[in-house]
Amino acid sequence: QVQLVESGGGLVQTGGSLRLSCAASGSTFSKLAMGWYRQAPGKQRELVAAVSSGGTTNYVDSVKGRFTISGDNAKNIVYLQMNSLKPEDTAVYYCYYDSLRSRYWGQGTQVTVSS
Known about the structure:
Layout: E1 2-7, E2 10-13, E3 18-26, E4 31-39, E5 46-52, E6 57-59, E7 67-72, E8 77-82, E9 91-99, E10 103-105, E11 109-114
């Protein structure tokens, strides 16, 4: 089992920045990737950004150039630096962890961008 603890959400004005953190603990010896999904009210959950254990990153088109995902493999922490935030970025952001056997989810953290 892997436990994920997220932090860093909050309320910010348009154009502002936030940094989300997600720390994994437990059986973290078979990590494949970590990343972030988000879900806005009335919308499906979408992948925002991910980083593989080898360091490969990918982003949804709508955040490219504004968000940066990074990871600390030694500490099993993943960060999502979010700059130039827009109201459409408002959502609950969920951290995930992929191992060889399963995907684990964090509890979610609210990000609200006011216009």
